[in-house]
Amino acid sequence: MLLERLYDEDLSQASYLVACQDSGEALVVDPRRDIADYLDLARHHGLRIVAVTETHVHADFLSGTRELAAATGATAYVSGEGGEDWQYDFPAERLHDGDTIELGAVTITARHTPGHTPEHLSFLITDTAFAPSPGYLLSGDFVFAGDLGRPDLLDEAAGMQDTRFEGARQLFASLRDVFLSLPDHVQVLPGHGAGSACRKALGAVPSTTVGYERSFAWWAPHLAADDEQGFIDALLDGKPDAHAYFG
């Protein structure tokens, strides 16, 4: 299996290329509008990009899912979760919780992890040639190294009202039901790093693990105590302003 991170320092945003080297098939997750880097990377490794997807509707950069799919003939996959108001407006295969994308010996499993946005998906990656269970989680704007995706951007950037409280409750449930159900060894690869306004305390390290966050994250004691209200209060306190280009 090949897993590479492509990072935009200006946006503090990460995309990922996942591939089975035996089959030569690759998936790109959360591509930016300028798709040249993905094409170059696939060419360098002798891979075919056969699938493109994204974790959620992005407020802070222009997605390149349609452009990359059109340029490569890949299948575009987007979230089918979140209800009618959160369906994408372009033709693509819809992913629901538990759906999979197969790349040779590599299995990518979609998990619905709402909170940052209602339709948000995270992707578990299993290299079946090496292990029978997932070893990686592409967490998008769900879990970062040292923090969580903010649930208030729909209010602040999209002009909606009071969605942050429901988003915070959804985030609590996503942590409890999905994230904390994973083994400690699972590596977590988030969609943003330090400098992003998507949260106030993002770490500068590019990844974390389920076990590290379970032990040391600010939110872990709230989950351990099943303290939803304390979690919500802490999550919504002291958030940074969204940049003017969010929306």
TrEMBL record:
Superkingdom: Bacteria
Alphabetized GO MF terms: metal ion binding; sulfur dioxygenase activity
InterPro entries the record matches: Metallo-B-lactamas, Mito_Persulfide_Diox, POD-like_MBL-fold, RibonucZ/Hydroxyglut_hydro
Biological source species: Brachybacterium paraconglomeratum
Listed name of the protein: MBL fold metallo-hydrolase
Keywords: Metal-binding
Domain Metallo-beta-lactamase: start-end pairs: 12-192
Keyword Hydrolase: no
